[in-house]
């Protein structure tokens, strides 16, 4: 469906799409438009067809905008309690954009409560049961992030539980901005903007009055000054805390530093008490997970991490790490239209439509269909501007593409709705090119009912724990503090290890384990990893990427590519030979092809007595009876050496069983080690027995 092409910033190009389609048709192919919609009810699709037939048009220039083809419902239309399709708002005269955004945000939050109060009905996902709507059925889709701050404030004030999804939105939330300010202040004492931002954050809660008193007394917002120790007050205390973290910032990883700072400053507790929801915990966890991902490639500085976070906050990324809902959470979802692509929701609120499409003004502009490029560097008003190629023509063409895609973004947003769609059309009179204006001109109001803004009276949530009386026991506070400190210290001492590392250390007393040939040709310490050798890594990578029924040409192409990637181009034939046997002749691959489900490169983690075991399993084959664990081995050995070599892998196999059973809560019924070079597949033993032995070894780790 070309109407859903909304990723031009990732080089999706409607001109290339149209040119490719024309080429296929000219050579005997057929272009079949997507006409059937199995997601939305008829009322929603009637509105979509009526509005976007005009907004998208008949495809006068299909290289810029495809022609609109009506979509038809597959679902039978059943009357449900609720709006069906409705609109709210319109042009607001004489108000600034900020005021209009807050007005719209308040209306959205109030309407969320109205959905539950009026008993709107939705279908379950399988479309078999009608039930009353919950907060978790509502998704607020926004094309831009401009309304996010106002929307969060309004939802919190109305007592509506919510969660923000999509990486570019998460980075713009106040909690994440506060943590970024704090980490920046810890890293750079000279960044007084970040220092003041950290002081005003919930981590230190210094008010503007506190800041004024500090400066009136001659204090400065720097924590390395000579008088930092002698000054008093909440600001001075906070600056001393920042200095302590600055001095100690290189003594732990970035993730550990962020986690420790959040714990010591009570960011999670403060957020939960203040808002009564889980967003504070979720967003602290998000930053810590981002730090772990950032450090995965190797040690990095705190400054590099902060700069990385700042760069990602400006990107239209889709990144849900740490941002998802807990299983028992009933909360409204807030996400960008790009993050909602491919998803569906019982109730969709389209909001933030007062924004207009923006032209990025890239240095490099391309017309890929016309095979033209242009470069423009420098301000247009300056004589020093450099231009190469038809800059003016391609800039004008790019603006047409951006405008066309903006209309498709609105189409994608509207078609995410299953049962109800509410469109908020608030905008200022000065925003003549905004999304709301475009929808109004296309007939959005004529083809739907108007909703009146719900009353916000009585929507304010009660203060968390209001009226709660706690009778504290008579305890020794000093002893309690010592006990708690010891508990926290133990909880923070977590060891991480892997199946390979444990197997390498687990040798019989007095015996030196002989290094296996699989790791014997390792010439670069940093290259150690999955598969051991360059050949092993190339084979594993090819098996991981190829379909289980890959053709000879596909196997050969992947083998050559992986051999080059591992700097062994002369061994591409060996890689191809091993991969071909595994995929074509091994029983494990055959069982995977026939299984109801099989998964490759499956990560797992399991905690045992303070030690976290992490690892990857090459292949899992699921059956009614349980799970089969399969591991590819590239050891350069003969068939008669397999049994002896297999004993070296018993501990590893047991650890795999522990990890997979803990992760899936299902029983591992079979273990298979496939030795590609020897062309044999064997089992190291009974999974339960191997797991029991591995658990004892894991518990005995120093």
Give the gist of this structure.
The protein is built from 26 helices and 22 strands. It has 702 residues and is α/β, with parallel strands linked by helices. The strands form six sheets. It has a seven-stranded parallel beta sheet with strand order 8-9-7-10-14-3-16. Strands 17, 18, 19, 20, 21 and 22 form a six-stranded mixed beta sheet that branches. It has a three-stranded antiparallel beta sheet with strand order 11-12-13, with helices on one face.
Describe the structure.
The longest helix has 24 residues, at 391-414. Residues 319-325 and 507-531 have low confidence and may be disordered. It contains 26 helices and 22 strands. Helix 6 packs antiparallel against helix 13. The chain is α/β, with parallel strands linked by helices. It starts with 13 loop residues before the first helix and ends with a helix. Helices cover 43% and strands 15% of the residues. A 7-stranded parallel β-sheet has the order 8-9-7-10-14-3-16. Strands 17, 18, 19, 20, 21 and 22 form a 6-stranded mixed β-sheet that branches.
